[in-house]
Amino acid sequence: MHPPRAAAAGRTASPTTARLINDRLALQLLQSEGPLTAGQLKSLTGLSRPTVADLVERLQEAGLITVVGESGAQRRGPNARLYGIVADRAHLVGLDLRTHSVTVAVADLLGRVRAEHTVLIDPDGAPDTAVAIALAAVDKALAAAGAHAPHTIAVGAPGLVDPATGRLGGTDWIPSWHVGLVGALRARTGVPVLLENEVNLAAIAEQRDGAAHDRDTFVLLWLGQGTGAAVVLDGTLRRGASGGTGEIGFLPVPGTGALPSASGCDGGFHSLAGSAAICALAAEHGLPYGAAVGPNVADAPSSGTGANQLSSGTGANAPSSGTGAIQLSVDTGAPTDAPPAESLVRSAVAAGDAGAAFLDALAARIALGVAAVCAVLDPGCVVLGGEIGRGGGAALADRVAGHLARLSPLRTDVRAGAVGGRAVLLGAVLAARDAAQNELFGTAGPGVSPRP
User: How far apart are CA 334 and CA 123, in angstroms?
Assistant: First the structure.
């Protein structure tokens, strides 16, 4: 979605405010459209030629834009100059924290990832050791990106983030090194460190560059080792009074034989759609645990330097090929978190009719949670994320939609997540980019950025 054109027209504002509005509008256009000439900025903003000339001069003096080329091989002179955002004006760091690993991405001001590094963590080791390993991973990624220091850091982690304090808590199972790492980053860097629930960051990625790019209201249902949800209403991420919006694992549902409690979600939706439950369901349908093919990547990076690539398009990390490829570097040597539920689901999809009964049974379970969400929120769109949503793809999403249509009168589009296995990390990069741009560009930005 392009920024509104001529947004500054007709506003009554002081000269200073008007300049800020105009500068932000021009920078948004350079972000979304890429390099533009002064004439193109004039046309897209509706501003006068002298006003555009003034803002171009201001933004150049501020180090935010520079001449990056000319608009045509046969043209020369000031009118042909192409202006673009100075991507190296700030470097951003995104982190995806798991029980056994941490992945770090370093991006430029446009959100293009320059380096990514993953290290595996021994969850039974000393918390201080885990923090030191994670901090070393941040330093390594920054060095690989040619960045001296980060401007903004965004961290995605499981658990509740208290809206009042911005601190991680609310559950006893959160690794203590997660809390220690966030504190160490804040103490060591002195830059803004934004903390957000991992599923919320995945929703940001799906909204910007994924399955919900055309939706202002949707719910991301995360299906992985555990279950969770993120709620975006009217373009704004909703976290709830205690940061617990989307704790769908605690949702009481039929078929579990028990009820969840304040201290655990066993007996809730988690017991129907968590990874362990999916593995058990697969065994009931003749797909035993050992029949899964391929590695489980729920919480483990791919092995080998450069084994995978992510690419950046005009958005922060739009999937594409060509320039902007990011090499993954990985330190291996520790176990993964989750049973191979993703591989089981992928195997069932690939098996066609042989896997249909299992997929139907799984879809019926997932639809129970989706129906409850729809009855309360009526989001119109539910995206199935996490390794199960990714592994099931359209085959699973279509089955969930069919079961949902029999449970709920509310029309709801059910889609498979499109961002892929780095949704949390890409969401962290996007959140850091929004925060950095909001500071450097001078005005408030999207409503989905995490809190410091």
Answer: 10
